[in-house]
Amino acid sequence: MNELVQHLVNALILGGTYALLGIGLTLIFGIMNVVNFTHGALYTVGAYVMYLAVTALGLNFFLALPVAILGGLLLGAAIELLLLRPFRGSDIDTTMLVMIGAGIVLQSGTLWTFGGVAKAIPSPFPEAPLQFGPVSVSWLRLFVLGAALALIALTYALINRTKLGLAMRAAFQDSDTAALMGVDVRRIYTATFALGSSLAAAAGALLGPVYVVFPQMGGLAELKAFAIVILGGLGNVTGAAIGGFVLALAEEFGAGYVSSGYRDAMGFLIIIAVLLYKPTGLFAKAERIG
After folding, report:
1. Distance (Å, rounded) from C-alpha 163 to C-alpha 23?
2. Cα-flanking dihedrals φ and ψ of residue 157, to 5°?
3. What is the rounded CA–CA span in Å between residue 88 and residue 95?
């Protein structure tokens, strides 16, 4: 029982950052109909900005996190303005090729800039973990969970309680009608891509101190983000958040009770099952067509 509780706690902490990845990706696809192959690279950029802010600029660890999120937001806005907007209206194959190329450039750029040696982000938290009976949790991981949950709540509030969020939801339902009603769809696309990118960067900045930072770290994170979106249903923000925790649970229990070597495989086995029996995702809503 003690081992079970420890695995549940570990999965909860990891699930928060997975949820951020999934929400960012599903927002971009749901509103813009763009398969964002730069998501993993933006995750890596967030981790490296966090590293630079703490080590090179000497910023406080807690101030470095919003700097990393802002860096992801600005980079995402630049990608949309410079790469996606000129191809608006092009077929999906062209857009996918552009995004794949952008992802390769970002990953190669981080490798050229920082080299292939992994970097560690200094943490201000004590190394001794907190003990809750038989369960031990590090201070850093508790902070990661709290920050991830706060960012999820802020994103949900932005989407459901602000005019920007209302415009984003309108563009998701019908961009042409939203444009006729006065919504500047081009600005909404830029804001959406920037928001999704900032969430990917936030996930990287939060997990960077937990593990290490290296240029290829975004590859697996991107695959997991796509898995989460498939679990939650395309364009479903709540589903993406829940899917992140479901994937974390699958990985943690797979590693704990099967083999640590199958940690990543367990999550993708669930994806195969979902695609076979519920291709629209576990939390997709039925839609009326026509």
Report:
1. 19
2. -65, -40
3. 8
pLDDT band (50, 70, 90) for residue 287: very low
Residue 284 confidence (pLDDT):
63
For the chain, report the end-to-end CA distance as a whole number of angstroms: 52
C-alpha to C-alpha distance for 85 and 245, rounded to whole angstroms: 33
Report the interhelical angle of 2-32 vs 185-207 (nearest 10°).
160
* C-alpha distances in Å from residue 39, one per residue of 48, 144, 148, 278: 14, 20, 17, 25
Structure pTM? 0.91
Alpha carbons 72 and 280: distance in angstroms, whole number: 29
Query: Could you read off the pLDDT of 39-74 as tens digits, one per residue?
Result: 999 999 999 999 999 999 999 999 999 999 999 999
Look at residue 286 and tell me whether its pLDDT is greater than 60.
no
Which pair of structure tokens corresponds to residue 150?
Answer: 């706060």
CB 250 within 8 A of CB 198: no
In the chain, what is the greatest distance between 2 CA atoms, to the nearest angstrom?
A: 60
Helices (H), 162-262: 163-173, 175-180, 185-207, 217-232, 237-257
Contact (Cβ atoms closer than 8 angstroms) between residue 197 and residue 73: yes
